[in-house]
Amino acid sequence: MVVRGFLADGHSLRELLFAAAISLRGSMTYARQLFDRVPHPDHFMWNTIIRGAAHTSNPADALCLCIRMERAGTCWSYHGDLEVVKHVISLPTRYEPAGSHIRDVE
Fold first, then answer.
1. What distance lies between CA 105 and its chain's CA centroid?
2. InterPro entries annotated for this entry (predicted)?
C-alpha cells in the first residue's frame, strides 16, 4: 500500500478502515481521517464507518454519516448491522434532520 499508493489497494484499505473503526478501541478519529481521504468509498467502507461511529460516545455521528451516505448516492442498508439500527433509532429526535426517513426502519 505504501509503494503503490494509498488508494491503489482497495482490499487493504478496507481492512485498515475496519481495524481503525471497529477492532482497535479509541481509533475512530483515525478511521474518520482515513475515510475522509477516500474519494469514492464503497458500500463496505460506508457501513464500517457508520458502525464504528454508532459505538462511540457520540452515536449521532452515525446518523450524520447515514445521511451523508445517502446524499453521496449510496443507499444505506440496515439489514447488515442491526446494532447500528438500534443506536440510530435510540437517538433523540433532535438529531433527526428534516426529511430524513431513517426512523422508518422501526
1. 17
2. TPR-like_helical_dom_sf
For residue 66, give its domain range.
10-105
Domain assignment present for 81: yes
Question: 59 burial class (0-12, 13-18, 19+ CB within 10 angstroms)?
Answer: middle
Q: How many domains does the chain have?
A: 1
Q: Is residue 93 part of a domain?
A: yes
Handedness of CA 52, 53, 54, 55 (dihedral sign): positive
pLDDT at 87 over 90: no
Asked if residue 1 is part of any domain, the answer here is: no
H/E element, 13: helix 10-18
* Predicted pLDDT of residue 103: 45
Query: What's the whole-model pTM score?
Result: 0.70
- For the chain, the average pLDDT equals 76
